[in-house]
Amino acid sequence: MARASITERFDEYFQVLLATSPEQLEQVYQVRYEVFCQEFHYLAETQYPDHLERDEYDDFAQHALMIHRASRRPVGCIRLIKANQGGQAYTTLPFERHYEPLPDPPIDPGSLRRDRLGEMSRLAAVEAFRRRQNDEKKPVSLTEAHEPDAAGRRSSFPFIPVGLFMTGMSMFLRSSTDIAFAMMEPRLARLLQRFGVYFTQAGELVDYHGPRAPFFLERKGALDSLLPEVSELLSLIDTQLFAGTPDQSTSGHEER
After folding, report:
1. CA dist list (Å): 38 to 45, 52, 88, 139
2. What is the 8-class DSSP label of residue 203?
3. Crossing angle, helix 159-174 and helix 6-13, to 10 degrees?
4. CA-CA to 87 of 20 to 30 Å: which in 123, 151, 158, 229?
């Protein structure tokens, strides 16, 4: 019997969906509260008496939720904040509050068109599912042990972190934004390169819930280096998120 592909295994166990209903958004905020407040204490639990972690950027964001098919339990979440949405423009994205330019910066966020900027943030997976994959004690992590090669090692493939990043990439490529920023550890950015996901560091390392720096991903060329297995996974996730919509898929999205 042929061994199931990474995409087939992901589809067997997980589903991603856009969180648009009040019930789905509540699940997103509950995941964030559980991870960022209760587990890691990045944010004070007392600020969220309803156990729903929300902030002022949520109304400017598209939210996605990963669900475990068998139990229907939330696994993780991610959002894409758009600097301009519905004609309303945010003066700053979250990463800009902590941005310190490099000596020779590859990009100047302040000089870019606001309606072409976005940010992936609030990326998190609940502890119970991270433990199953032996992930590090971080909201979302990759380790040196995580193999990008599918052959013979599918059981160790990091379905949840890579799946959440592909969910963010799908939302990004479906949006009107050309550049997506994210605050992350340089080590995580380096490990993502093993899967063909190339974020470029945009600013200095700062203390933001640990040492993190702003990184960015450009629409142009974002798909060029993805490993075949990861590209196939992205196509599946894009279909799960946007099935039935008239918009183009990520693989055929017009570059702006």
Report:
1. 7, 11, 33, 12
2. B
3. 90
4. 123
Residue with tokens 């939302």: 171
State how beta strands 61-68 and 84-85 pair: unpaired
CATH number for domain 6-241, candidates 3.40.630.30, 3.90.380.10, 3.40.50.300, 3.30.200.20: 3.40.630.30
Give the number of C-alpha atoms closer than 13 A to the C-alpha of residue 252, restricted to the C-beta side.
Answer: 5
Strand partners, 198: none
Pairing label, strands 117-125, 179-184 = parallel
For 190, the token pair is 């380096």
- Tokens standing for 58? 């949520």
In this structure, how many other beta carbons lie within 10 angstroms of the beta carbon of residue 3?
10
Is 220 in contact with 204 (CB distance < 8 Å)? no
Q: Please enumerate in sequence order all residues whose Cβ is within 8 A of that of 215, keeping only pairs 6 or more positions apart, or say none.
A: 181, 182, 183, 184, 189, 199, 200, 201, 202
Give, for all 256 residues of the chain, the pLDDT tens digit: 567 899 999 999 999 999 999 999 999 999 999 999 999 999 999 999 999 999 999 998 999 999 999 999 999 999 999 987 666 666 689 999 999 999 999 999 989 988 899 999 999 999 988 876 555 666 766 666 655 654 444 457 899 999 999 999 999 999 999 999 999 999 999 999 999 999 999 999 999 999 999 999 999 999 999 999 999 999 999 999 998 665 544 544 443 3
Among 64, 191, 215, 76, CA closest to 132: 76
* Full-model pTM: 0.89
How far is residue 18 from each of residues 31, 63, 95, 252, measured CA to CA in Å? Answer: 15, 6, 23, 20
List phi, psi (to 5°) of 23: -70, -40
